[in-house]
Each structure stands twice: as structure tokens, then as C-alpha cells.
Task: structure prediction
Amino acid sequence: MSTTQLVTAQADTLIALAQHSAYLADTVQVPSVTPPGSEKFMRIPGIIKWAVTLLGVTMLIASGGVMALDKLTDHSVGSKGMKIAGWSLVGGIIVAIAPQLYGFINA
Result:
């Protein structure tokens, strides 16, 4: 077999491989269907949001109790209760922002 025939045969093989791989790339279809059981997984963020919101409200009520106790016992001017209330409000802001961040990340 001559060198010209060998080069021509290799070129034909490379062209056939390129056409075959292009055909495979064009025909791959990936279904965009949610997997079964994913509804239960998508409920988890909502449950967490409600639990954290309930905890935040409870902490605000507790901080009011701590401030009232400090006032009745003539301790400091409610600094511990104010810290609890402040952190509860920071947690509430995080809970309010979380669904938008979750939606942005999953988009």
C-alpha cells in the first residue's frame, strides 16, 4: 500500500469518526422531568422557614420577659433582653431573605 493510499484511508476514517460523533451529539435528548418524590424534598425549606419564624417570635416574647424581669429586679437596663431582641430581629431578616436566595440559587 502506498503512502498516498494510506493517508487517504486515514483521512476517510477521521472524517467518518467526526461525522459519527457529531451525529451522536445531535441526537442526545435529556428529559427535564422532576424525579419522583421530589415534592417531599421541596417542602423541607417551607417547614424550616415556619419553624425558624416560630422560634424568632418565641425569642421576641422571651426577650420581653427578660426585660420585664430586669426592670422588676432593678438589674441592668435591659441589656440582655435587648441583645436577645436584636438577634431575634436579625434572624427574622435572614428568614425573610432566605426564600429569595433559595429561588435565585435554584434558577
Notes: The CA atoms of residues 46 and 99 lie 9 Å apart. The mean pLDDT is 75. The chain has two domains: 1-30, 35-106. The chain is about 80% helix and 0% strand.
